[in-house]
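pinned: reference chain
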Amino acid sequence: MFQNFEVKPMFENQYHQRHQFSLKMKGHTYQGIFRNGKIQWFHPTPQSKLEKKVVQQVETKVNDLMTRHLA
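pinned: its structure tokens
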């Protein structure tokens, strides 16, 4: 579905700890923050470039990868 999925921690070992991720898809790089099972996208958001169905698939895949990464 997408390539180059990367994760890096932010505010490690602090109360506000969360994880930033980035992925490449269809020639665009998308970034966001994953915390408590929720995705907050940075600009540009996939919603501005991709169909709603594709965005839902991307978010499902990101959620799965992040959940496994954090386990």
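why pinned: Residues 17 and 49 are 29 Å apart (CA to CA). The chain has a mean pLDDT of 90.
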